[in-house]
Structures are given as structure tokens and as C-alpha cells.
Amino acid sequence: MSTDDTVLVRAVQTSDFAEWAGLYREYRAFYALSPDESIVERVWTWINDGAHEVNAFVASSGDRLVGLAHYRRFARPSTGSVGIFLDDLFTSPNTRGSGVGRALLSELSSLADGEGSSVVRWITAEDNTRARRLYDSTATSTKWVTYDLTPGSL
Fold this sequence. Notes:
Elements: E1 7-11, H1 17-30, H2 37-47, E2 55-61, E3 64-76, E4 81-91, H3 100-115, E5 120-122, H4 129-138
Parallel strand pairs: 4-5
Antiparallel strand pairs: 1-2, 2-3, 3-4
Keywords: Acyltransferase, Transferase
Organism: Cryobacterium algoritolerans
Protein name: GNAT family N-acetyltransferase
């Protein structure tokens, strides 16, 4: 992506499927998740179901998609407020460092501000150093530690 290319962020559209799916497959590969077309299809169905909690923004440059962000709202009982949780943020490898991730975060920040949300929150892998440079420049790292409990394990 050249420096004169403009990054535009918008809600995903049904006509975006092929490019969105390509980006989402790359996202899954980045995190070493097994290829699984049923997951790609399921997440696409969620995004396009107005009753489902998952939403998506895509970033475009020129005539191609170069990034995605999947997000959902969540209740925060401790503060009596609603936040936005960023589940997935991905930019195509050849556009990293060119402002795509920042543009997606900016759009989420604007959405949260417009809705009166109390926070935009996400997690990332500790070793995702390139993304963490962006995150450290745009947000505050928290003191909270994340745990995963396997259903039925207790």
C-alpha cells in the first residue's frame, strides 16, 4: 500500500464475502488455528444476522479489503455500563504499519463514543509485538489476567 492510498473503514457488506473470508482465513492462520471452512461460514452468518451479537468493520484501500475488525457489545455490571469488545483485528501482511489497524481502532472508538459506551476492550497474544506497538500507542494495558475454563471440566 502506498502512502497516498486512503484507508476507508465501513460496516461489512454481503458483497464482501470473498475478500473478508480471505482475510479471516489469514487471521486464523496467524494464530495457528486449523483451517476450517465451517467456522468461516458460521462467523460470516453471525456477522450478517442482525439478531446476533457479532458485528464487523472492514478497511479498504483502493478496490480491495485490507483489514477487518469483529466486535460485540458487552454489559459491564460493575460500572452499570456497556462496552465494546474487539474480538478480532487483522490487517493484510503487506499493509501492516500503514495505518489500517489504527483506522479500524479509530472507527471502533468513534462508534463507542457515539453510543456512550464506557470502553473498547480487547486481548492479544503476549508475543504479538508488532500489534502491541500499535495497541500501546492507542490504549492502556490493564492489570487483569485472562483465564479460560474448559466447559464441563470441574
